[in-house]
Amino acid sequence: MGAGTSGRVAMLDAVELYPTFGWPEERSLFLLAGGSISVAEARESAEDDTDAGRAEIDAVNCGPQDVVVGLAASGSTPYTLAAIEAAKARGALTIGIANNPGSALLESADCAVLLETGAEVLAGSTRMAAGTSQKIAMNLFSTAVMMRLGKVYRGRMVDMKPSNRKLVRRAVEMLMQVADCDEASARRALEETEFHVKPAVLVLRGLSAGEAKAALDRNGDDLHRALAELG
Fold first, then answer.
1. Which CATH architecture has domain 4-149?
2. CATH of domain 153-229
3. Which residue range or ranges hold the SIS domain (predicted)?
4. Known active-site residue 44
5. What's the CA gap between 71 and 100, in Å, rounded?
C-alpha cells in the first residue's frame, strides 16, 4: 500500500500475484490513497488523509495472519504511516520500504527496507529513481516469497493460471520441459488436472489426478517435496 507512484507500484505487484503464482486474490490486496480513481488520476491531497489510511486497514480486517507492506519514497507520507501504525496495532507484521534514510516509515515498521537511491535527476520527482527502485524491490520480494511457498519449480511459474491461449501454450511447453515429455502427453496430463501444472507433473510420473492432488496436499503444495516422496 501507498500513495501516488508508490501506491501504484504496490498495486502493480499485487495484481500480478494471482495470474503468475496462483496466489489467492482475496489474500493479495492493495490500498491506494484516494482509492481506485487514483490509478489513472493524480490525487496528491489523498496522501495526507491519515483517517483513510487507518480506516482502510480496518476495512480489510487486517490481523496477525497478515503482512502489510508500505511504500513511500520520502518515508513520511501521512496516509502510509497511519496505515502501517494501524496494521501494527491490529497485530500484522509490517514492512516499510522507503528511499529516505532515517525516515518515520522505516522507524515505525517492524521490518525496514532502505532503498538509498539518492537525489533524483529531476529534483523531487520520486516517480523516477525512487519509483523504479521500488518496482524492482517489490518484484524481488514477491518472487522470493512465492519461491519459498513452493510456487516456483526449476525457475518456472508452475502455479500460474493459464487463462488465455498464450498461457495455455506456456503451460504445455513448461510441462514438456519440466517432465521431459512430448506435447501430446503434456496436454493429456494437463487436461486431467484442469490445466494445473504441478499435479500434471505427478500424473506424468504415474499418479492419477486424485493421487497427485493428495500428494501435493500432504507436502504443503510443494512439488519438490511431492516428487521426493515418490523417490
1. 3-Layer(aba) Sandwich (3.40)
2. 1.10.8.1080
3. 1-151
4. no
5. 11
